[in-house]
Design goal:
- The chain is mostly helical and 254 residues long.
- It is 79% helix and 0% strand.
- The relative contact order is 0.13.
């Protein structure tokens, strides 16, 4: 199913580029932190100074990029996504940058349409985060193996072990996997809750309250995890997930 998503193209694409720059800076910084352990100041004063200055510059750049991502690029993209979400649910327009084919249900009442949109969002999010987790698990497994080997090697310098430990337990490696897995589990929970809500058909006030609760849970999970879903995986999996969504709608009668 064709989806036009200017929000992703104009805002989330920038977040992904910033995250890629941050990841690159992290690996360069980790490399310089290890290299600095092997460059002696007395024997190679110039090389030592270059390594130390470079390390400081990359650390500062990583800090600035990370702060910008958390306080500007990501909130800007999330604000635009929420505006589009509520505009679609209420049948209004907040901006000329509107998605087309991004939300797919036939409800006309705002709360009902909102509930279906949450269900569709979670259907896509839980599948994409699961695929992303597969890659991250392999990457973390490799890094943890290297860390364990360093710990077991009696000849390994303590400073090297500390440097490797800092890399493994950083935001970009182990913490990222935990946050990704947590986001995946939350998306699965919200999906299950909303799915059962459509099945049980509770009274309208209860349905409305449960919808708003599920929406807030989903949005809070995204904000807490701080994970940007892969655009590449979204486009790659779109046709399959859209087909599954049509089947889900048929099963629930929505």
């Amino acid at each position: 199913m064709s989806k036009s998503d200017p929000i992703r193209e104009n805002y989330y694409a920038a977040v992904e580029r910033v995250d890629q720059v941050a990841d690159a800076l992290f690996y360069v910084t980790a490399l310089f932190s290890i290299v600095s352990l092997f460059v002696e100041k007395g024997s190679y004063p110039l090389a030592y100074e270059v390594v130390q200055i470079s390390f400081a510059v990359f650390v500062a750049a990583l800090f600035v990029i990370g702060l910008g991502s958390r306080l500007y690029w990501t909130p800007r993209a999330e604000d635009k996504r929420r505006q589009d979400f509520f505009a679609s649910a209420c049948g209004v327009s907040f901006s000329h940058q509107k998605t087309d084919g991004y939300y797919n249900n036939d409800f006309t009442k705002p709360i009902q349409r909102m509930a279906a949109q949450v269900l569709e969002n979670c259907h896509f999010s839980k599948a994409i985060t699961l695929r992303m987790a597969h890659t991250e698990r392999i990457k973390v497994g490799i890094y943890v193996l290297i860390w364990v080997l360093c710990m077991l090697c009696r000849r390994a310098d303590v400073a090297v072990i500390v440097a490797v430990s800092q890399a493994v337990f950083s935001e970009q490696i182990l913490s990222k996997l935990f946050r990704l897995e947590w986001l995946r589990s939350r998306c699965e929970k919200v999906y299950d809750d909303v799915y059962r809500m459509f099945q049980s058909k509770p009274p309208v006030p209860t349905f409305n309250a449960m919808t708003l609760d599920s929406l807030s849970t989903y949005e809070t999970a995204k904000a807490t995890a701080g994970i940007t879903l892969s655009s590449k995986l979204f486009h790659k999996m779109n046709d399959r997930l859209s087909g599954e969504w049509e089947q889900i709608k048929a099963d629930l009668g929505i």
